[in-house]
Predict the structure.
Amino acid sequence: MPAKKKDESVFRMLLSEHDRCALVIDKINRELDKLPKGSLGERKVRSHGKEYVYPCLRYRGESGVVFEHLSSAKAEEIKPALERRKKLQGDLKANKKRIATLNAILLKG
């Protein structure tokens, strides 16, 4: 009985999908570099018996968590970019998992 011949078309298809995912990851990383990092929050400051609430952008810096105070207009302006970043990070995670699965399959073949 002759040995089974591997189906090269399936191998090429998986390799093509691997290359596509690698390009998508590269594109997502370039876009993430352009978007602001962090999350929107509010800081409460008490002064002279009154409490003031300020919108701020929280993110990790070299020396720890950084709180960058924003105007209300700037906070509304930056909100869609932060939501876009969060969506892209989810897409990035999914594509990295897909590449890991494809690598495992391609190494077996």
Summary: Strands lie at 39-47, 50-61, 64-69. The chain has a mean pLDDT of 89.
